[in-house]
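Researcher: Next sequence.
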Amino acid sequence: MTTLIYDGTFEGLLTAVFEIYERKLIHVKMLKGEWRSSALFEDVIKVITDQTKSRRVLKGLKERLSTEGVQRVYVAHLSEIDNCEQTLIGYIRHAFDSDRNIEEDYGNKFVLKLSEIVQMVRRERHRMEAFVRFQKLSDGTFYATVDPDFNVLPLLIKHFKDRYADQKWIIYDLKRKYGIYYDLNTVEYMEIDFSRSNQGGKASIHCEDKGIYQHLWKNYFNSVNIPARKNMKLHLRHIPHRYWKHLTEKI
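Model: Next structure:
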């Protein structure tokens, strides 16, 4: 068994696939981060992310999978689920080693597992698209915090760029400590120093209109609510309690 250590990036994963084929490795285990084991006789390879190698693997995937199929590999990688790398490596190797498209080969355990992971990640993305609540900062930028189960921020870019194309905004992932910032032209990844902030990631430079935006959200929520048809069990199914702390109408 050979253990490959990579940096956790998608490009790093693809570089690891290149190393597997170049070295003709059969039984492999993928780990993310730094290797600290001092066990003897351990065959460990530290994968150095290489853009040329990763592009070659990506090109090969595009020749064997549909555009949607390649996108599903990327989406599954964003899940950050334990042992997800093993599923991804198994899926990619199956794609390369097969003489046909394997995207609907659900008899294969890696294809089936990847499909389940993609479904979970996309469900989380849809929830974030619905549950993000912006508040206006003093410089006119709209700011929102999230802490999704999966790393879905990259999947939110198109939706929010299309929907809020005429205003600057930031969506910050508190769990992963990075955000996406739209400046009316492009979207960039960013980090924020919260040393001068308060309330667990809520910036202390809110606009004076903050209360107005909260009031509008709460009024909207109350206006569409029908007390006689209140069903908390159904409500929690659609809006799990873990998201409430980011919903203005729940504050």
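Model: Strands lie at 2-6, 28-32, 43-46, 135-136, 142-146, 169-173, 178-182, 187-190. The first strand starts at residue 2 and ends at 6.
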